[in-house]
Amino acid sequence: MTGRAEPSIARLIVTLAVFLAIGGVATYFLWHNLSDLLYGRIHDLSLPGLLGGAIAFAAVAWGLGRWVRSLAA
């Protein structure tokens, strides 16, 4: 027993909703620019949007992974 309190259901739901909201926006920008890149429409590509979406998505995935690992500890 580590002495830490278990997170409440409400806190779990709110935290996951925040991750989904931020991750959804990041995925929207990443997907749009990535599909333009894969279709070969380079003139429609927004490089800052692609890089920003990829970085934001990676940050959300990393943060969610750290949060889930902290629940198991």
Walk me through this protein's architecture.
The chain has 73 residues and is an all-alpha fold. The chain has helices at 9-39, 47-72. The chain is elongated. Helix 1 packs antiparallel against helix 2 (47-72). The chain has one domain (9-72).
Q: What value does the average pLDDT take? A: 81
Helix content: over 70%
- Tally the beta strands: 0
Radius of gyration: 17 Å
Which range does the strand content fall in? under 5%
Element-by-element helix/strand order:
HH
Structural domains: how many: 1
- Describe the global form: elongated
Structural class: mainly alpha
The largest sheet is: none
Q: What's the tally of helices? A: 2
Question: N- to C-terminal separation?
Answer: 10 Å
**Contiguous runs where pLDDT drops below 50 for at least 5 residues:** none
Which helices and strands, and how do they pair?
Elements: H1 9-39, H2 47-72
Helix pairs in contact: 1-2
In short:
By secondary structure, the protein is mainly α. The protein has helices at 9-39, 47-72.
Short descriptors:
73 residues, elongated, single chain, mainly alpha
